[in-house]
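Support reply, case 0932

Customer input (verbatim):
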Amino acid sequence: MHGKRLLIVACTFFVAVLGTRCVSGPAQAAAAPPPSEVNATTSPAGAAPPTSVLTVGVAPFQSRDEQRAREVTDIITANLSMDPRIKLVERSRLDQVLSELGLSRAGVADADTAQKVGYLTGANVLVWGRLFLIDKQAMMVGRVVGVETGRVFAEQVRGSDTEDLLPMLDALAEKIANRIVGERAALVAPDVRDDMQANLNALTESLKGKNRPKAAVMIDEEHVGAVSFDPAAETETMYWLAKLNFPLVDMSSQRLQMRQWAKEYYQTTTYDIPRLIPEDVGVLVVGEAISEPAGQYGPLYAARYRVEARALDRNTGDIIAVARRSGTYADASPVLAGKNGIEKAAAGIAYEIIPKLAGYVPKAPPGRPAAATQSPAEEPETSTEKEREAAAPAPEEQPEAAEGE
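Our regenerated output:
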């Protein structure tokens, strides 16, 4: 009997040790990677998408039962606030914006309205939805819209109206959070500065062996209600071009004249070669940038921004590439928010247009002054040939002169 007990104890100990080894081995091998690696799916450019926290606003959910609608909104908000990947807009700020837009009762009804609310609150993403109670069934729909991109995604949960709604709300909040993080690239305009070195390395590799024409950059910048003391968009664009070894011409000493030329370019339909730019410049990047205050929430100030740029053949005005970015940025002051938002947009624009500039061969300058509108095909070539024929002796007369001699 004593021997059997010893045998049972030994077997139990052996199984426990073996189980511990089996559990610890595979569990360690399959341990979840850190958050920075979870989302590190390679993009076409070879850079990992950003993993910074997203600012999300939760607009009031709608229902025929107003009390139930408020409960749904509060529970969804509470669940999302516990997700470390998400930063919520303060409820007071969101309520203020909704009130200013006259949406306190009507609520958010479509993506356009959601984008407007997102811009005014400084949110990257806005969430809103509705609770339906139909035929003893309960259905909750949550919608997610990218403020910058306008992309909309929907999630829903269903159950009986006699069941506890709390598990349904927990499930919907989890789906919404996962959708926001999983569809980040579609919801938020990418900020290539988040992993700038990787993006620069990827571009450098893709541009190997390609011609890099000399470029000049002129992007006019305006900050509504503030003095523009340095051109963030122009500086950021030049930074990316310089890092990728494009020859550059600094036109800062002729900024006022170039700014006037840029305005005239956008206002007219004809292209005049900017004579201030050296003749060896092949590409001119011209654009406009603007920002304006978009309110304050908490200690941060939001600013809306928009940047557009065109890469032109300096000699002909032909458009090589066009890009634009717009969105909202929040920072410690309205000026910083506007500047950083414009800088973010300019980095994205540079990242988009530079591959189109590499390998581009600028066209030859026209043979006549830039003010002339006549194209080479319209030149009176026939009359010029007749004049040359008249000035030169006829071919058949030359041999006769030789024979006479």
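We compared this against your earlier run and they match. Two observations from our side: The longest strand covers residues 283-297. The chain has a mean pLDDT of 76. Please reopen the case if you see a mismatch on your end.
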